[in-house]
Amino acid sequence: MDLLALFHKGGLVMYPILLASIIAVAIGVNRYLCYKGAVANIELLKERLPELLRHNRLEEAKVICEEAGGSW
C-alpha cells in the first residue's frame, strides 16, 4: 500500500489529523525562526556596553547593540 491509500483507508478522521500536523509543523518552524533571530552576541554586549554607557558614548553603544544582533 502506498501512503495515499493508507490515508484514504483511515477515513474522515485522517483529515483533521493531517491539518493538525501541518499546523504543528508551521508553529515549530515559526518558533525556530523566532528564537534563532533572538540570539545575540552577549559577550560583546557584556564587555563593551557598560563602559560606553558610563562615558555617555551613546552612538558607539548603539553601534555595538546593532552589531551584536538579536531581536532588539
Word description of this protein:
It is a single chain. Helices cover 79% and strands 0% of the residues. With 72 residues, the chain is mostly helical. Helix 3 packs antiparallel against helix 4 (58-68). The N and C termini lie far apart (51 Å).
Briefly say what this structure is.
With 72 residues, this protein is mostly helical.
Features:
single chain, 72 residues, mainly alpha, 4 helices, 0% strand
**Structural class of the secondary structure composition?**
mainly alpha
Strand content: under 5%
Largest sheet: none
- In total, how many beta strands? 0
In helices, the fraction of residues equals: over 70%
Helical stretch count? 4
| Shape type | rod-shaped
Radius of gyration using CA atoms only: 24 Å
Distance separating the two termini: 51 Å
The low-confidence runs, each spanning 5 or more residues with pLDDT under 50, are none
Please state the average pLDDT score. Answer: 88
N-to-C order of helices and strands: HHHH
Chart the SSEs and their pairings:
Elements: H1 3-10, H2 14-38, H3 42-54, H4 58-68
Transmembrane segments: 12-33
Organism: Veillonella criceti
Protein name: MotA/TolQ/ExbB proton channel family protein
